[in-house]
Structure formats: C-alpha cells, structure tokens
Specification:
Blueprint: E1 3-12, E2 15-20, E3 25-29, H1 36-47, E4 62-68, E5 75-77, H2 85-91, H3 101-104, E6 105-106, H4 121-128, H5 131-139, E7 149-151, E8 154-156, H6 161-188, H7 191-232, H8 236-269, H9 273-282, H10 296-313, H11 317-346, H12 348-362, H13 369-415, H14 424-452, H15 470-505, H16 513-542, H17 546-551, H18 555-563, H19 566-576, E9 581-585, E10 588-592, E11 597-599, H20 605-624, E12 629-633, H21 641-656, E13 660-665, H22 668-677, E14 685-689
Parallel strand pairs: 3-13, 3-14, 6-12, 12-13
Antiparallel strand pairs: 1-2, 1-4, 4-5, 7-8, 9-10, 10-11
Helix pairs in contact: 6-15, 6-16, 7-14, 7-15, 8-13, 8-14, 9-13, 10-11, 19-20, 19-21, 21-22
Length: 693
C-alpha cells in the first residue's frame, strides 16, 4: 500500500506555506486564484519524473513530500531532485507501465489519460495487454515504418523517421501546388476590393447608429431631468406628515368610540339613580321590619287587667295589686310607642308602592335599606366614572376636531382645493403612487442611460437618420470586425505570399510574378522526383513488418478480456449506476447497459467523465494490485449535481478500501458533499481550506 504520509509546500506561486498530513480521504478547498492549481502541479513535479503533457507552469516550487510503501522507511521526494515514482516502478517488481502516473492524477478536471488523449485503442492496450513485449522486439528493427501499411494504393504510417521525411517531401510538393493556386486566386479575384467597399458601408452605418445612440441618450437625459424636477416639486415631508396625522386621527376616533361606549354603558347602570335616591331618603325606616307587632301590646294589657280584676275579686289583694301595677306599666309603655306603631300602620301603603316601583325597575323586592344604600353607592361610583369618560371623550373629540382641521388645511394646500373627509385616503394614496411611479420611471431612465454608455459631452440634440438598436449595433460591429479581420488577412496573405514562396523555394524572388511561377514549377518537379525514389524504398520496408502485424492479430481478444475484468466493470457500474460492460471495436470504446451500447465519445459529459474515472481507478486497481493514492483536481466539476452524489460516494468507498484520495476543489457544492458523506470515516476524513498568503 503506497500512501502520502505528509507534505510541506513553500513559495509555490500564490502558496507561501502549506503543510498537511493526509488521511484516507482529504479535501483541499481553495477559491479561485488561491493557489489550488499550483499545489496540484507541485505534487505532480514532486512525485513524477515524466511531466511532459501536463502543461505545467514555470513557477518557483519548493517543499518536500514523504511517501510510505516504496521502501521500509518513508521516502522523501522534492520537486527538483531525488528519485520519483517511475524510478521505483522500473527498478522494482511492480510490473507497471511507464505512463502509470497518468492514472493516479486528474489535473484541471481533465479525465483523459494525459497528453490530451481520448481513451482509444492505444491507451487501452498500453494498460491491458503485454504489447510492450512486441514493442521490445520491434524496437530492435527499423523504427522508421512501424505500423506502416498500404491502404487503397496509399501508404499509411506514423509520421516519424523515414516516413516522416517522405511525408514532408509530399507536404512540400503540396505546398508548392497550393502556393501556385493562391497566386492565381489573389491576382485573378476581386475579394479585397469587395471587402474594402463592404467595410466602408459598415463604417457609414455604424456612424449613423452612433449618432442615433447619442440622440437617444440626449432624449433619455431630458426625460430623466423632467421627472427629477417633477419629483422635486412634490413636498414628500408634507405628505408623510399628513399620513402620520391621519394615522393619529384614526386612532383617536377609535378612542372616541371606546369612551362613548364606556359612558353609555355606565349611564345605563344609573338610569334609576334619582328614583332610588328619593326612595332611599323617604322610606329608609319604612322598609325596616317592625320589632313588635301593633296589636300585641293591647292584647297583653287587656289580659293583665282582667287577671288583676279576677284576683281582687277572689280576695288575693296583693297579687291583684301587683298584677295591676304591671298592667299600668305596660299601658304606659304602649302609650309611648303607640304613635310610632300608628305611623307604621299609616305608611304601610307607601311602603307597598315603593316595593312595587323597585320590582318594576329592578325585578325584585328590596330586602332592607342596606341593599338600597349599596345600590345607590354603586350608582354614584358609576356617575363618577361617567364624568371621567365624559372628560376623556371631550378631550379626544377636541383632538379629532383639531386634527381634522389641520389635515383638511394640509390637503387643501397639497391639492389646491378643499378635500372631503371621505376622499382623504384616496388623495394621499394617489400622491404616494405618483411619487412611487416617478421614482420607478427615474430608475428606469437612469438604467437606460447607463446602458447607452454615452458621455454627457457627446449628447446629440439633432435627430439622426437611423433609429438606434443595441442588437443591430452589436451585429454591425461583429460584422465589421469580421470583414476587417478578413481584409487584414488578405493583405497579410498578399504581403507574406512572397515570403512563403521564398521559404518554399529557398531563394529570394526579386523579379515579377512570372519568374516566381517558373521557380515554383521547377521546385515542384524536383520534389516529385525525390518523392518517387523514397516511395519505392518505403514499400520495400513495409514488407518487413507484416509478420509482426500478424502477431498482433489476437490483441483485441486480450484487450476485451481486460475490459471485462471485475476490477473495471464493477467500478464502471458503481460510478455510473447504469453501464455494466465495456467493449473495444476498432479504435472506439463502447459502454453497455441492460439494453444497448453507446460509443464513449457520444455519451453526455457527466456520464463520459464517470466512465473515464472508472477506467482510471479500475486500471490502477488491476495493474497495481495494492491500494495507492489518487490526486483529483476538480475531477467532478463538470458533472451535474445528481451525479456528484454518486461520484463522491464511490470515492468514499475507495477510501474505505484503503485507497488514499486527495481531492482539490474550488466548488462549494462538491466540498459540502465530501464533508457531508466523509463524516462516516471519522478521523479518516480531513477537510482543509487554503488561506490567502
């Protein structure tokens, strides 16, 4: 298992200092221009010897990195010196191809396998076959015409060695032919004159449109000034004050209604106050129950007198005298209280009348004078509250009258006429809507004026012959630029044509075009003779390589077995969730699902990136046979958000199977997905944010 134990970067582009002890899954987030790409390039130059094709920038690189798993102790690597990973693969028993480093790094969201190559037959056989053995045998032979063949009477071969020289001779001859044709076209056609006339017409139209734009800017500025003056003429503070007064008035009118309701409720409770007060004053004692009944004393006195008479007649003088004395005392007592008893009897009718009146007003008979007093006290308290309510109501009504007068006066000034009370809200709203409309129109005109991009000094009051249209203006500018570039190109062709001819014929042409054409014809004839001689030599050498080509006939079957390996197909299905098979046909790769197969180069960008990443990881797992590390520089940047979840989860599963992942991103969404799913790894997940220097 090969892992990055630690890394320390110093003075690499915008990265002044960065250190990290990577765990299983590492996310390094850095906004744009924060040095993320420089950090990835530092890792590439530190780990790999062959950096050709990475398009690395020439920036200072300093720092060190420790790698575990190559030797018994961690190996130190730096960007400028020491052994690289390829050195260990070549020296050891790893059995890895030279370009294996291309599998471990995705730089700049480019999932191709380095050097800008698509995944084709050449890439596949490099990683899934033993083609390098045949290459070793063939390298001992003439390397000039490897894979050369004759197809349709034409020689096809890689452009190198002798074939490259032969191709160059043919290209030189074709170039001479093209130069002769260009001389004829330039001097026989009138393209340049037509382009000059068209450029003049376009300049004239653009000038008219520019005048129309300046006139439109002047008109827009005039309308804007008029609206601003109209808005300045509106007293917004007065309008706001009126609105505030109306809110206060509405609140006080509600207070008036509340005070009036409280007063009416209290007055309803004091409706019979005067009657109750009179009844209480005149009938207080009449309403008290009598302590002795009126006839009780007369009956008792009669009995006492009769008893004393009987006792005297019976000879019981002392007893009779005693009883007679008691009777006399009772007669005196009755005589003293008799007027009162008589008065009670005389006012019995008045009492009955008051009880009837009480029942009619209050629905019951009073128990005693205490009840009358309690009711009278409650009514007096209600009368006190009524006075308070009356004062509050009077104050609120006075405020309402004053505010109504003030608002009416303000609205009269604002409107220039007297406004009815029911019109107040509508009038205020109309003025507010007018202010809002003026501001919206001012904002729109300001935007229009800004879009026109005309300085005030360039405003044009006079109307133009054309009507300004931004779309037409842009179209004319683009067309003019195209015509201008084409004309300049024609002129450059005319100026450079002699130089090209001189370069092709290797001599200065100081004469006229007739002499130049003669030189070109002579050069073409000489090149033709050389091409025929070299063609005969190449045809002879092609036969030498036919046997080796026959040995490569079984290559496709072996490559297909490699593409069907579990390490690759499982990874493809895990990442795409759809494709389960890969097949090589000719030089193209086809991905298959349950129903059909699709060329890899015709898949959507997201699906294609998933397959490429699956091939990259699958090749690595199949070839290395041990967990390694992957450096992914925004590898999921161009995937849609739904696919990103699957990609992140697959990378998480790789980390669980002892692979070490270093993912560099400037995408907030991708960082958040890693932080969301990476929590399950615990200490095996690390998220780092690059800070400004």
């Amino acid at each position: 298992m090969i892992r990055i134990r630690s890394l320390e970067v110093r003075d690499t582009g915008p990265v002044r200092r960065f250190s990290m002890d990577p765990v299983s899954l590492n996310v390094v987030y850095g906004p744009n221009e924060m040095g993320k790409t420089c950090l990835v390039e530092w890792l590439i130059t530190s780990l790999f010897r062959n950096t050709r094709g990475w398009n690395l920038r020439d920036i200072p690189r300093s720092g060190k990195i420790l790698i575990e798993g190559l030797e018994k102790t961690p190996v130190l690597m730096t960007p400028r010196r020491g052994k690289k990973l390829e050195d260990y693969w070549e020296e050891g028993e790893w059995g890895l191809p030279v370009d294996f480093s291309r599998l471990l790094v995705v730089k700049g969201a480019e999932l191709e396998f380095g050097d800008g190559r698509e995944v084709d037959r050449t890439v596949i056989k490099q990683f899934l076959s033993h083609q390098h053995f045949l290459d070793t045998i063939e390298s001992r032979m003439d390397k000039t015409l490897h894979d050369a063949r004759i197809v349709g009477g034409r020689i096809e071969a890689a452009k190198r060695g002798q074939f490259k020289g032969w191709e160059e001779l043919n290209e030189k001859r074709k170039r001479i032919d093209e130069l002769i044709q260009r001389v004829d076209q330039i001097y026989s056609g009138g393209d340049r004159q037509r382009l000059r006339e068209k450029l003049e017409n376009l300049d004239k139209e653009l000038k008219e449109l520019e005048a129309a734009r300046c006139h439109q800017a002047w008109r827009t500025a005039e309308k804007l000034g008029k609206l601003k003056r109209e808005l300045a003429g509106i007293d917004e503070k007065r309008l706001e004050a009126i609105r505030a007064r109306m809110r206060d008035l509405e609140g006080r009118e509600k207070d008036c209604s509340r005070f009036r309701a409280n007063r009416d409720e209290a007055e309803a409770g004091c409706l019979h106050y005067e009657w109750l007060k009179t009844a209480s004053e005149t009938c207080e004692r009449l309403l008290d129950p009598p302590r002795v009944r009126p006839y009780f004393g007369i009956v008792v006195n009669g009995i006492v007198l009769l008893t004393s008479l009987i006792l005297l007649l019976l000879g019981m003088h002392l007893a009779g005298i005693a009883v007679l004395g008691a009777g006399i005392f009772l007669w005196v007592l009755v005589a003293v209280r008799w007027p009162r008893l008589v008065r009670r009897l005389l006012h019995q009718e008045e009492r009955s009348r008051i009880e009837k009146g009480f029942r009619a007003r209050f629905g019951s008979v009073p128990e005693d004078s205490a009840q009358l007093k309690s009711m009278l006290k409650e009514m007096e308290e209600s009368l006190s509250r009524i006075r308070v309510y009356e004062e509050q109501l009077a104050e609120a009504e006075r405020f309402v009258r004053d505010e109504q007068t003030a608002i009416r006066s303000e609205l009269t000034i604002l409107e220039g006429r007297e406004v009815e009370r029911k019109e107040w809200p509508a009038v205020v709203k109309r003025h507010e809507d007018r202010i809002r409309d003026l501001r919206d129109r001012i904002s729109q005109y300001q935007t229009d004026l800004k879009v026109l991009q005309v300085e005030e000094a360039d405003f044009r009051k006079e109307p133009a012959h054309a009507v300004y249209s931004p779309k037409k203006h842009d179209e004319l500018n683009r067309e003019r630029e195209t015509v201008r570039e084409t004309l300049e190109m024609k002129n450059r062709e005319l100026d450079n044509l002699k130089l090209e001819i001189e370069s092709a014929t290797y001599r200065k042409n100081r004469g006229g075009w007739e002499e130049i054409l003669d030189d070109l014809e002579n050069t073409r004839q000489a090149l033709g003779d050389r091409c025929r001689n070299q063609t005969a030599d190449i045809l002879a050498k092609i036969l030498v390589h036919e046997v080796i080509r026959e040995l490569r006939g079984a290559e496709d079957a072996k490559i297909q077995r490699g593409l069907s390996a579990v390490e690759i197909t499982d990874m493809v299905h895990a990442l795409t969730g759809r494709y389960k098979t890969l097949r090589l046909e000719g030089s193209r790769i086809f991905a298959g699902d349950e129903t059909d197969e699709y060329p890899l180069d015709q898949l959507s960008t997201g699906a294609r990136e998933q397959v490429l990443l699956a091939l990259r990881v699958g090749f690595s797992r199949k070839l290395a046979r041990t967990p390694l590390f992957l450096i992914l520089d925004d590898a999921f940047q161009y995937s849609d958000w739904k696919r990103r979840h699957r990609l992140v989860k697959t990378v998480l599963n790789l980390a669980r199977s002892d692979w070490q992942i270093l993912y560099f991103t400037m995408d907030d969404h991708i960082r958040d997905l890693f932080e969301k799913y990476g929590k399950v790894l615990g200490t095996g997940f690390k998220s780092v944010t690059l800070e400004p220097a």
